[in-house]
Amino acid sequence: LQGLKDNARKTAITELQSCMNDAASLSMALKQAHWNVKGPNFIAIHELFDAVKARLDPQIDAMAERVQQLDGVAVGTVEEVAKATKLKPYPTDLTKSADHIREISARLREYGARVREAIDTTDEAGDADTADILTAASQQADKDLWFIESHLE
Q1: What's the rounded mean pLDDT across residues 82-98?
Q2: Which long-range contacts link 36-44 to residues 24+ away (Cβ below 8 Å)?
């Protein structure tokens, strides 16, 4: 890419892959919660989890495509994501909506923090375009966290 130093490119690939790992893990956790949630306001929570996932997945795709633009290899298999994500495994024994909301909120908060770190790192390395992609992901994560946490009293 024009004007992008090798260090900026390598840094961006590393940061994007790390964010992708956490985002893919979060995406699968959202689906787990969507499938298994029960309780008051079931349909609202069930549909909210799917809507958040539907907004997250294009962010993952944008990150992966940026990795390719930078001459990297986007890795997104379940096996590799499971090894690399920094998010803790999602519990598979939950059914209560409040429990799912708390667990998803915690992961969304952690993912948002990771993305914000990557924004700073890629910007400092000199790749403003990658920082912009990550900024869009961060803004959406913050908004979705607000939507989900608003269901907690």
Answers
A1: 97
A2: 36/92, 36/94, 36/95, 36/100, 37/95, 37/96, 37/97, 37/100, 38/95, 38/96, 38/97, 39/95, 39/96, 39/97, 39/98, 40/97, 41/97, 41/151, 42/97, 44/151
Mean pLDDT, range 75-96, rounded to an integer: 97
Task: Give the pLDDT score at 17.
Answer: 98
Task: Read off the tokens for 134.
Answer: 């990550």
Nearest to 135 by CA among 89, 51, 66: 66
Q: Is the pLDDT of residue 3 over 80?
A: no
Closest CA to 90 of 31, 19, 149: 31
